[in-house]
């Protein structure tokens, strides 16, 4: 390029950059088209000049003390990215331009953006995805950006270089020589790669990986055009998606056992997309290095559960994250909208977390935890499962010593009617009544349990005082199937007497440990006022751990001995008054 042409290009780029402060991003493509139409400037030369200016801007931001872009700089980043991506689209399948943009623009930009600026992060990631989708250049991303991101995650979480990866590229890109050998020398600024590579934010890496998964999934589902011979021998959107999904699933499982930041990225950035993918497809066949592998919902679910079990054995932060993982897992795979039965894989039933007794034990622990967040997550899990499971309950003969209905009237008292109305108005739910339809009694029991728990969790004494005893009596009067054993663990939760009393113990423990002393008094009074003679063998079903634990601890609560203290105080006052009378007479 001659000196005159160079000066002309510099002047053009300078004017264009100045306009970025006053022109919205949506108008930039039209401005670029006008420039290309009205001048003899080529799109490739304009792209190179803008990329040089963009790279200089980003390097300047990185040298600042905080290393993050300001509001004005973020606006420039958005405008530059929009311009460069538009020019990349006009260049078609020019892979060198895309590689240059990735190394000198995209990665540096993502590093300098504040991780909380989700709008800008999404904008830049979507713009790159649009370029790749339109030009069908997944192979370029597969051999450049993906290995970089995977290795960046590996360095952040301390993954062993020898650990297995779908693409087997963990160790191949941990050195500048590996990066240099992968890319053309003209496309990679080798001096900028090591600091960028070693300190690339984990959250940004996970964000970009998820964006690529979303884009490739959308691309292979919507594009109906035949593949080019180059794509057939390289990497189509479908192949890219499946291979990357394999790696991201492996990363997500590993990150569960790492630092709190790693688990945060897994829960909020990786797992939502992975689980929604498995909610639609139970398995994928993936060809890697000439071998066919199967990535299944069954194996991923088992690994998720193993990870949660490990977290449950650790401290409160780890337990909190385990409940967050389970809440997300249940919400997506067992939601009301997704009612498919558990499938069979090679004749073996797919993993069902509801069949794990320890799952239910941990939910019970979560419901009585001191931390409100954990209690809320546990309750959300129960609500989702109760809405999902609308199968018909056993409709045979029913036990009747709970079977023998209590002489208590089932008609709502005036006070209970008020409580029912109050509960509905507050969105707590509705007071459940016993019906003779055994097929719906299981749902009613869960409804009653959730209502009682929400009374304790969300509101003061008025609902507990009005409706607690009534609802407890309803639970004690539900019909139960006369069946000694159940084929699944989750069927025995509230559909057997033993199971029901284990959940009643959860309610009693939560009530006896309530923050409001008046509520604690009401729950203790309710428990002690139950006429156990009317319920036969049910006295033996109250969990021993509850009696010798929360119940005995509750008996030591001074709120339950207030009347006794007042009696002693009155007796002492009377005694003092009596003994002081003779002294008064002597004076």
TrEMBL record:
InterPro entries, A to Z: TRM3/TARBP1
Keywords: Methyltransferase, Transferase
GO biological-process terms attached to the record: tRNA methylation
Highest rank taxon of the organism: Eukaryota
UniProt-recorded Gene Ontology molecular function terms: tRNA (guanine) methyltransferase activity
UniProt cross-references to PANTHER family, sorted A to Z: METHYLTRANSFERASE TARBP1-RELATED, RNA METHYLTRANSFERASE
Protein name: tRNA/rRNA methyltransferase (SpoU) family protein
Naturally occurring in which organism (per UniProt): Thalictrum thalictroides (Rue-anemone)
């Amino acid at each position: 390029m001659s000196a005159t042409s160079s000066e002309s290009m510099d002047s053009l780029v300078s004017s264009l950059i100045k306009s970025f402060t006053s022109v919205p991003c949506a108008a930039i493509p039209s401005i670029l088209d006008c420039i290309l139409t009205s001048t003899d400037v080529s799109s490739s030369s304009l792209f190179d000049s803008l990329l040089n200016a963009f790279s200089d801007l980003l390097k300047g931001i990185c040298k600042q003390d905080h290393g993050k872009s300001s509001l004005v700089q973020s606006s420039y980043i958005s405008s530059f990215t929009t311009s460069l991506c538009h020019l990349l689209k006009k260049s078609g399948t020019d892979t060198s331009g895309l590689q240059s943009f990735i190394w000198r623009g995209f990665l540096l930009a993502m590093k300098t953006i504040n991780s909380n600026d989700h709008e800008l992060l999404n904008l830049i990631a979507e713009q790159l995805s649009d370029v790749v989708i339109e030009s069908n250049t997944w192979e370029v991303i597969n051999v450049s950006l993906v290995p970089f991101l995977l290795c960046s995650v590996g360095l952040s979480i301390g993954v062993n270089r020898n650990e297995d990866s779908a693409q087997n590229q963990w160790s191949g890109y941990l050195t500048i020589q590996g990066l240099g050998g992968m890319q053309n020398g003209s496309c990679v600024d080798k001096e900028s790669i090591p600091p960028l590579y070693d300190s690339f934010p984990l959250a940004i890496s996970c964000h970009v990986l998820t964006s690529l998964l979303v884009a490739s999934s959308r691309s292979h589902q919507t594009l109906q055009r035949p593949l080019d011979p180059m794509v057939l021998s390289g990497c189509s959107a479908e192949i890219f998606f499946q291979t990357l999904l394999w790696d991201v699933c492996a990363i997500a499982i590993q990150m569960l056992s790492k630092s709190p930041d790693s688990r945060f990225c897994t829960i909020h950035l990786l797992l939502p997309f992975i689980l929604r993918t498995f909610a639609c497809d139970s398995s994928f066949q993936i060809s890697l290095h000439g071998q066919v592998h199967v990535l299944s919902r069954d194996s991923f679910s088992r690994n998720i559960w193993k990870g949660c079990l490990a977290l449950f054995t650790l401290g409160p932060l780890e337990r909190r994250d385990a409940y967050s993982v389970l809440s997300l897992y249940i919400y997506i795979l067992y939601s009301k909208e997704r009612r498919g039965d558990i499938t069979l894989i090679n004749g073996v039933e797919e993993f069902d977390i509801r069949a794990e007794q320890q799952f239910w034990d941990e939910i019970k622990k979560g419901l009585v935890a001191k931390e409100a967040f954990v209690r809320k997550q546990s309750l959300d899990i129960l609500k989702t499962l109760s809405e999902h499971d609308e199968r018909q309950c056993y409709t045979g003969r029913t036990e009747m010593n709970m079977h023998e209905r209590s002489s208590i009237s089932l008609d709502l008292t005036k006070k209970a009617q008020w409580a029912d109305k109050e509960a509905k108005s507050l969105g707590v739910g509705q007071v459940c009544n016993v019906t003779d339809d055994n097929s719906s009694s299981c749902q009613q029991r869960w409804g009653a349990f959730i209502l009682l728990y929400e009374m304790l969790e969300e509101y003061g004494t008025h609902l507990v005082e009005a409706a607690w005893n009534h609802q407890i009596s309803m639970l004690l009067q539900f019909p139960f199937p006369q069946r000694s054993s159940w084929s699944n663990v989750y069927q025995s939760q509230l559909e057997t007497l033993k199971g029901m009393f284990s959940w009643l113990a959860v309610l009693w423990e939560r009530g006896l440990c309530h923050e409001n002393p008046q509520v604690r008094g009401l729950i203790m009074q309710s428990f002690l006022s139950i006429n156990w003679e009317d319920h036969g063998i049910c006295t033996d079903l109250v969990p021993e751990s509850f009696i010798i634990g929360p119940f005995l601890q509750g008996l030591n609560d001074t709120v339950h001995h207030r009347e006794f203290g007042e009696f002693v105080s009155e007796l002492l006052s009377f005694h003092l008054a009596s003994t002081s009378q003779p002294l008064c007479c002597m004076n």
